[in-house]
Amino acid sequence: MDQGKIDLLRNNIIADQSHWIDGKAVSASNNKQMDVLSPINGKRLCTIAEGTAADVDAAVKSARAVFEKGTWSRATPAERKKKLLKLADLIEAHALELAVLGSRDNGTEIGMSYKAEPLSAAGTFRYYAEAIDKVYGEIAPTSHDVLALVHKEPLGVIGVIVPWNFPMMIGAWKIAPALAAGNSVVLKPPEIASLTLLQMAKLATEAGIPDGVFNVVTGHGAVVGEALGLHMDVDCIAFTGSGRTGRRLLEYAARSNIKRVYLELGGKSPNIVFADAPNLDIAAKTSAFGIFRNAGQVCVAGSRLLVQSSIYDSFMEKLHAVSTKMKVGDPLSLATDIGAVSSEVQLSQNLSFVSGAETEGAKVSLGGKRVMAETGGSYMQATIVENVNSNMRLAREEVFGPVLAVLKFDTAEEAVKLANATDYGLAAAVWTSNISTAHRMVRAIRAGVVHVNTYGGADITVPMGGFKQSGFGRDKSLRAMEKYYDLKTAWIAL
User: Fold this and answer.
1) What range defines the domain where residue 418 resides?
2) Cα–Cα distance between 266 and 242 in angstroms, integer?
3) pLDDT tens digit sequence for 397-443
4) Is 46 designated active site?
5) What is the pTM of this model?
């Protein structure tokens, strides 16, 4: 990346945005618009359409019509593959523009946004494009006078709802396999980070994906998300976000057509450092980046640090040294390590968690304050909170900000008990040189992803999802395609 090119793009005027339905821009049925405010400086970037239930219905009808027509749903695997690869190429060709646009929209530091958003999304579309013609049906073992075939057929219309922290990356995890399987998609992007996903839909049309196959309806979750969840002609909802919203979507499915609902919810992931970790300096650096990058707004962030008592003081010294050097600043500067918090609402929530922890007896040993308020943006220091115990709110609930809760442990058994002492089970990490300890911890920790001697980096080839109240949806890997197929048995008497 080149800072000069980033600076040329940072002040581009962004046109007011409409929905993208049936391959064209469509205004909200009530003609209302919502302001888009940048967390970088609090200033208005543009407006997006404030969607209604009628807008969702129009998008679903478009998606259903093209599905029934078969232009995409019955296209050959080679045809779908070619167009999804073209979409991946277009996303990559516009990667810097998309990354800058996304950083202006949600505050992610550009060094992370560029790789984690457009480049990741392009890679995801390529992965599922290449998978299309490797998916086979089955011939069942039966008696000699019967032929039993199991066909995989696309579900129909998929409703996709994604969060604001990595909208392109997480959006691609759901959209790419859904489209690869032959479905149509109606996407509800996050209110405060819709711009890159609108661009993705426009690029899909440019790539030759038929009109109506990929639709975007912007607006408030309580309106657009609810309308998708209750719609009688949506066959599936794929969602990443809060547990509260996930529960509502399950209720909406029960109240409507019993649509499938796949949920990837919150996390309070434990990062466990044993005294025999192979390299404490690397563990400290990785732990800091595992919670503070993107201002802690990462679903798998290592937000609980569990340190063995015998190395606690020395490890915390290393962690503080790394964390203190991490620069909070302009998300569009390549020198920035920690960008903006996504909104004033989120910043206020982060600060309330810190003050609440202090009230409960914890100690803020680093940060804990708002910074750069003079910019008009939403910025917060990297924050480390010690003297935390497992009963405190900070140890149990997801903050989704740059706030690290630190706990001590003595034995592996105690570490497991602390690690599992939340309602969540999304991710975890274990640092140890003992292979037996590593395997025992992987088995004992209730989490969908357990890292060993690293944090993060699990790529598209493996499933992503959680245990317990982190939900039961699985994104990524070939297994994700299974969510978007129906199985049909043909039982043929010979």
Assistant:
1) 270-459
2) 6
3) 999 999 999 999 999 999 999 999 999 999 999 999 999 999 999 99
4) no
5) 0.96
